[in-house]
Amino acid sequence: MLKQRLQQKLLQKLSPQQIQIIKLLEIPTVQLEQRIKKELEENPVLEEGYDDSDNPYTDQEGDNSSQQEEETAAGEQDAQDEFSIDDYLGDDEIPDYRLSLRNYSPDDKKEEIPFSVGSTFHDYLLSQVGLQNFSEKEKLLAQYLVGNIGEDGYLRRDIENIVDDLAFTQNITASEEELTKVLRVIQQFDPPGVGARDLRECLLLQIERKDLDTPAVALAHRILKDHFNEFTRKHYRKILERLNISEEELKEAIDEILKLNPKPGSSFSDPMNKPVQHIVPDFILEIDEGRLNLSLNTRNVPDLRINKQYADMLRAYNESNKKPSKEDRDTLTFVKQKLDSAKWFIDAIKQRQNTLLLTMHAIIEFQKEFFLTGDETKLRPMILKDIAEKTGLDISTISRVANSKYIQTPYGIYQLKYFFSEGMQTDSGEEVSTREIKAILQELIDNEDKKHPLTDEKLTEILQEKGYQIARRTVAKYREQLNIPVARLRKEL
Asked: What Cα–Cα distance (Å) separates residue 138 from each residue in 129, 143, 145, 186, 213?
């Protein structure tokens, strides 16, 4: 049986502008440039423009919510009230919305130097295939093998699997012996070590190209060939006993091995094809006579304003006493929607900037000693909640601001996440950042005796003597976070 009844529900919904602000907060400066370009392409009402007035922004009359209410009641209102140009224009004839600080000269040139893409690592190997005295079949096999070599120079696939692939995908019948014979030729290509199937083979291929009559090179070859496991585990005592050699001879042989390249593909450096990742800071911090000056990096972020032609179109209809026809009403509705979208986007960019600056100012105030000195030991324990309380923003908002953002300081470029860390109390009750403990741990390991490196237990004892009550497993965790191997693997002769 169907029944009709009224029911009230309390729901939380995000407005389109709130969603837009959330998305803009998460992206860094580089992606913001692309996002603005995309909006400029999609919205004809939005355009780039400069405002030479003293105020960085032109205030706008009206409110988004009131505009939405007007749009809802559009069918019941007169055209003059429905499409009021006053919602979008200020007192100026041309409304400019300044979205970046003019902290650079108009004469500055933003030039990009074009360059052509050079040959790749695989192209380089294929060019060497053409120089060999291969038969047609061997040439096809060599090209297929080169295609299976990774960017690091290794052939990671088994010869047996490649034989099957050739039969099923290329309709080429080849034996493992034929493929191995071709692979041996490829392993003589440049760079040395290419085509190796594991690290041991890679190093052997390189050492065999050296003068094996040299005692140190010959010993290095023997170590790699017969005692590779002991070498990788740094069991130097076993190698000394089994080869009956002195420590000085072993040291010379190891020096020869350390000169070899474990990733031969990386030695092929084509500057025209080498990918380079640039970090563009979102904030710029400068120190002037002990004062910290923070600014947003908005150099490549364009200024935005509402297109004058569309604004004039609404102005003309607004000033006329004629009631628009259905076609004109559809056109006006479209223009008004685009105007709303443009105004929302401009407001979202402004709110993004205000939120970023508010959050970064709070972080700088919290970590002021570090930003004044650059000393990592001055970093205080800081979590998202600390900054949320200082700014009055939600923790999720602080998290979005800190995500993928960088700040340029006189001491280098840092990711904002770097400044957030847990805390730990010393014997005196003072709360210190885990960053400080990691810095001390790094210093201890840098200055240790490499013949007898400090174990995690010994590092724990030293830290406890300095007043840091820390467990061995915590030391091991911090050591791993610093990408430092265990004591046995740090041992040197």
From this structure: 10, 9, 10, 11, 34
Residue 247: CB atoms within 10 A of its CB come to: 12
What per-residue confidence (pLDDT) applies to 74? 41
d(CA 405, CA 122): 35
The alpha carbons of the chain give a radius of gyration, in whole angstroms, of 33
Query: What pLDDT, on a 0 to 100 scale, did the predictor assign at position 431?
Result: 61
Structure confidence at residue 493 (pLDDT): 66
In this structure, what token pair is assigned to residue 162?
Answer: 């490649």
| Residue 83 amino acid letter | F
Question: What is the H or E stretch that residue 351 is in?
Answer: helix 326-366
Residue ranges in 148-268 assigned as alpha helix (H) = 159-165, 176-186, 199-207, 215-226, 228-232, 236-243, 247-258
The model carries a pTM of: 0.54
**H or E element, residue 293:** strand 291-296
Query: Domain spans of the chain?
Result: 15-104+278-421, 121-267, 423-490
CATH class of the 423-490 domain in this structure: mainly alpha
CA angle 435, 441, 446 (to 5 degrees): 125
> Which residue from 260, 154, 266 is spatially nearest to 206, judged by alpha carbons?
260
CA-closest candidate to residue 420, choices 377, 392, 374, 384: 384
The residue type found at 384 is L
Between strands 304-306 and 283-288, the pairing is unpaired
C-alpha 99, offset from chain centre = 25
The SS3 call for residue 335 is helix
* pLDDT < 50 positions in the chain: 51-83, 85-86, 88-111, 113, 115-116, 271, 273-274
Helices 136-147, 176-186: axis angle to 10 degrees equals 70
Query: In sequence order, which residues have a C-beta less than 8 Å from that of residue 176 and are 6 or more positions away?
Result: 159, 160, 163
